[in-house]
Amino acid sequence: MAEVLPLPSEGAGSGDHVQFRFRDDEPLMDPAVTVDAFIDQTNATAVRVEPGDDARKLLPHLGRIGLVEVNFPAFTDGRGYSVARILREAGYAGELRAVGDVLIDQLSQMKRCGFDAFAPDKPLDETDAKAAFDRWPHVYQPAADARVPIWNLRHGRNQEQNG
Amino acid sequence: MYKYDHYDQAMVDARVEEFRDQVRRRIEGHLTEDQFKSLRLMNGLYLQLHAYMLRVAVPYGTLSSAQMRALADIADKYDRGYGHFTTRQNIQYNWIKLEEAPDILADLAKVEMHAIQTSGNCIRNISSDQYAGAAADEEVDPRPYAELLRQWSTFHPEFLTLPRKFKICVIASEQDRAAMRLHDIGIRILRNEAGELGARFYVGGGMGRTPMIAPVIRDFVPLDQLITYSEACLRVYNRYGRRDNKFKARIKILVHEMGADEYTRQVEEEFAHLLSQGIEPPTAELERIRTYFQDPAFEHGALDALDRSDPDFALWVDRNTMAHKQAGYINATISLKPVGGIPGDASADQMRLMADLAERYSFDELRVTHAQNIVLPHVRKADLYEVWKQLDQAGLGTANIDQIDDIIACPGLDYCSLANARSIPVAQKISQRFAAGGKADALGELKLKISGCINACGHHHAGHIGILGVDRKGKENYQLLLGGSEAEDTSLGKITGPGFDEDGIVDAIERATDVYLRERGEGERFLDTYRRIGMEPFKEAIYG
Lengths: 163, 544
Ligand code: SF4
What we know:
heterodimer, A: 163 residues, B: 544 residues, Sulfite Reductase Hemoprotein, domain 2, Alpha-Beta Plaits, 4 domains, 5-stranded antiparallel β-sheet
């Protein structure tokens, strides 16, 4: 079954325009700093990950992170998807925001990899975006979201996976 | 063969709707051409020189008669009455209109087919041995594993924007009929000493401008960890594959630059981590898939002999058939390489005939081979003569499998916008030259492969004889390579020297084959003689 899209909350976040947000908590207003700066500044709570950054450097510091922005300078660079899953697999539960060249047709795969906020450079058409989030009736494989893969549904295993 | 359930069907149907919507947004101007390009590529649509080309996926090369008929109908309805079978066991149509593409995908979905991920920087259609489930020498049928990988890789959210395209091949016999080690990941299903089945992973092979033979990175992955291990291989590539240079972005460059040992170490680390994530499908799923690949209802005690009294038939049997695992049955290969024809092309009517024959004589199954031919995998020996007669009448009875005129050729400059030179006319000339006077027969097994540019879609590196089209001061020029092989004795061909024009290359090949005929030892193929005597005698004959 397609998921229900929560009402998007606009304009929140640290400078970037968050157009879609799938969280109930208050958005963190702290500025996001680079990965290296974040590791040095022990009071920082928001971090911005660029495609070449090693997301695993953040794992020892997950406890103090409230917001991770993952930048997609070009939609064709898919490293941010691995960043998102690695953070979620390590138990990161804070906001994971896709920023940059975020387009309609990548929204659903981003969400599956664990992104729960989207701040596209250029605002997206709301109707088309909603259709994109709701596009897939099922999923074939587990990812960072709660969707149950087809290969579990087929065998009566409907519970969420931890992956 | 595999059949969709309502889940598979729902996914393919959703894909058709998604693409229809994307085409609409493109036409309405909401998507730029650059944005749209990556979306249409993921649905198999390329812009070629004269029109769009649509590549349809044939998972692990297996087709039913109904599917083959649907492919014929598409050729008639949306193209010019032809289809072109490709080196990745798929089919391409060369004259497609963008506006009609969503309707074609909808027609395909009705017969459980699609064009998902047949292009673009993602995991492509999984290829396999064309004799899977029918070969006398296989350990098991490799297709259940290929099907599991198909499901895993379909719309995999992390791996849809990889550095570059990604091709996976699964085989399950020692003989390699699928160029397994020239894939990004090659998997061989085999048994360990304890008799358990597992997967040997070869990673980082490929052709293109920097051909590489994939090294083994893990000897044995237990089958209940197949997906997790694949995911680890892909994640390391997605994170660290080069994105600064399109020509260095394939995984072979990563494995080469990082070193196979270091790549392996990182994969093993990622694998250990992913095991804790529980991403492997339930084993019941593999069991479910296997039930679709059980043996058809073979007739036990079927007559295990052929009447070879018709000499033309006997010749075709010798050239175009392969031993079957079931007594009384045989694998019959239909050559799509008639003398002077376009390699891999079939007309809609020919497709329909092949579908009819499969339905009547081959338990409803056909296979596409990477050498661009079609196999009827389960023909009763008692029916073979009738099958051959019908094929022969339709112009499909050419007896030349693995001979010099069974040429693999890419579309080249006749269609492809990246080409430096035409491939098809060269293939036609070679086939005419060697078929005349029976020279092709005299040469025996000699695999010849032609690419119209350095991208190597025609596998020229892996031909016993390879031809590479280049641009020389604005003129089409052809380089000659010798000594490649895509089989279990994988090797890469070496360039003989300066290139030739279109007629010159045909003459040069003839001189090379004359050296072989003169020098060959007992039972030696062209490749064996080349490996024994080396390049020099060939060079002398070609340039001397
Ligand atoms: S080898 Fe070159 S010319 Fe041939 S199909 Fe590939 S890209 Fe086109």
